[in-house]
Specification:
Layout (H helix, E strand, L loop, with lengths): L1 H33 L2 E3 L7 E7 L6 H18 L3 E7 L15 H14 L8 E4 L3 E4 L3 H12 L6 E9 L3 E9 L5 E15 L9 E16 L4 E7 L9 E9 L5 E7 L2
Length: 265
């Protein structure tokens, strides 16, 4: 009888171990699915910070440092603040070619400045929620504006977000709830951080640590159908651990940001 019990236990042990591992793996997968995106808390406002900067601009490192600290504090406080650093290309002819600069980001800055009816563009320029612009290093005024925006309830919500990361692209589907007007939906692929030794230009000799660098950006129109599917190329030589993705909607007429979320991988 005792021999039978020993044999039964030895036979059951691998089966029990398999069941335990299966449940553990399933639980981890469920957790990853649940944490696939961080929708903004509808009880709080949302703040999208779009900085237009350049490694060739001596005033820009201060703005980047300020906004990085603001977002890091927001993460700890569970506040809906998302910082994007667009590197423009019009500084490139002044001695240092910014490796992260793109003409399309300069065009986006022009697009905003036309809406604000400004005569010229500059760095570091910060756009807050699509409809307010300020010099990106003015700490007190920026923090005041952010706190005012966080008090405003969300008008639109991003729901049912499903994300797929492949070797060369990122696909996101979902829906916008509560839209009344035509919306622009933006997807930004960010490089979390990068250190660059600047060998010429205004920042010559400095080692700049840039954060939340926009490496890819795409906008689509959302009209009557609030369901969306958006795909964007993944930047070369960036691992998933180096990437942060931000999804946010804007009213097409007023440019006001109406919803947003981080996508995690």
């Amino acid at each position: 009888m005792s021999i039978f019990k020993k044999i039964s236990l030895l036979t059951l042990l691998p089966i029990l171990l398999f069941i335990f591992l299966f449940k553990t793996i399933n639980y981890a997968a469920e957790e990853k699915t649940k944490q696939g995106y961080y929708p903004a808390n509808p009880q709080k406002g949302i703040v999208i910070l779009e900085l237009f900067s350049s490694q060739g601009c001596s005033s820009c490192p201060k703005a980047d440092y300020l906004l990085t600290n603001i977002q890091e504090k927001a993460i700890h406080l569970n506040e809906n603040i998302m910082y994007l650093n667009f590197h423009v290309d019009y500084w490139n002819y002044l001695g240092w070619v910014d490796p992260f600069s793109k003409y399309e980001f300069t065009q986006r800055q022009h697009w905003y400045n036309q809406a604000f009816k400004l005569n010229s563009i500059y760095t570091p320029q910060l756009i807050i929620n699509g409809n307010f612009q300020i010099i990106g290093s003015l700490k007190q005024k920026i923090e005041t504006e952010i706190q005012n925006r966080l008090k405003q309830p969300l008008k639109v919500q991003l729901k049912d977000i499903v994300t797929h990361f492949s070797n060369d692209s990122i696909s996101i589907s979902g829906s916008l709830i509560g839209i009344n007007d035509e919306q622009l939906l933006n997807i930004a692929v960010l490089q979390k951080s990068a250190v660059t030794e600047i060998k010429s230009g205004e920042n010559k000799g400095l080692k700049l640590n840039n954060t939340n660098i926009v490496r890819a950006f795409k906008t689509i129109n959302i009209q009557n159908n609030n369901v969306f599917n958006i795909k964007i190329n993944k930047p070369d030589k960036l691992s998933e651990e180096q990437i942060r993705v931000v999804l946010y909607a804007q009213n097409k007429n007023t440019l006001e940001v109406t919803a947003g979320c981080f996508i995690t991988n």
